Amino acid sequence: MTRRTDAHPDLTRPEVGAPFFSTWRVGTPSRQKRTVEAIARTWEGRPWPAGDLLGYHVYTGHDGSTLLHHSQWRGERAYESFVRTHRQERVDEIDTAVPGIERLGLGRYRRYRSVRREGDPRVPGCVVIVDVEFEGPDPERQRAWVDAVLEALDAEPNPHPGGISAHFHLSTDGTRVLNYAEWESAQAHADALAAPGDGVGSATELWHRVQNWPGLKGSTVSRYDHALGLVPA
């Protein structure tokens, strides 16, 4: 069966071989709420679809328009089997409840590196997604850029106390990096962005190198609240 949970996902679970992220545009805060409710009804009314699906989480965007979806699979073959056998009936039921959902595509990733304060007991009050795009596929460049970010974080002279963790994922097509960052609150993240420097980091040479990396095409930053967690019962 399917069980609802308020717990945030563990991004470092070693069993997760295929973490996926996708975004839906639904238009308004009321439609965000209705869509989350429709997803919950649809999934809770059916058996858990696959033993290799470890968790499915939905987040409401602070833009009042989007939903972020994060699913944790043991491997891509299990996901493909789900698509063939179970996905469409769920999509149809959700679309009947909330017509006009715009699905913006599925991103396939592998987690590369994570950083978290040891023993930090805080529950995230906000999830920040940093989506970084490069000019063309280059897996070595993906890894090197993340390594440079973590070097800059490690040397950061003014670390903001509101940051809890950062989990860097590399897209399987070699073109993107997604940082799933947990923050104490949205205000803590806003305060960090407002501090001196370009972005969360201070105006150091290491951060300058990160921000001017060869082949870096652009990035977006989006804030979300964890709205729904679904796991096998």
Q: Any overview of this molecule?
A:
This protein is α+β, with helices and mostly antiparallel strands. The protein has five helices and nine strands, in the order ββαββαββαββααβ. It has two domains: 2-108 and 224-232, 2-Layer Sandwich (Alpha-Beta Plaits), CATH 3.30.70.100; 110-223, Alpha-Beta Plaits. The protein has an eight-stranded antiparallel β-barrel, surrounded by four helices.
H/I helix tally = 5
Q: In terms of per-residue confidence, which ranges show pLDDT below 50 for 5 or more consecutive residues? A: none
Cα gyration radius (Å): 18 Å
Which strand order does the major sheet show?
2-4-3-9-6-8-7-5
CATH topology label of the largest domain? Alpha-Beta Plaits
Distance between the termini: 5 Å
Integer count of domains: 2
Mind telling me which CATH architecture of the largest domain this is?
A: 2-Layer Sandwich
What spatial form do the alpha-carbon principal axes imply?
Answer: globular
Instruction: Tally the beta strands.
Output: 9
GO molecular function: monooxygenase activity
InterPro entries: ABM_dom, Dimeric_a/b-barrel
Pfam family, one: ABM
Organism: Streptomyces muensis
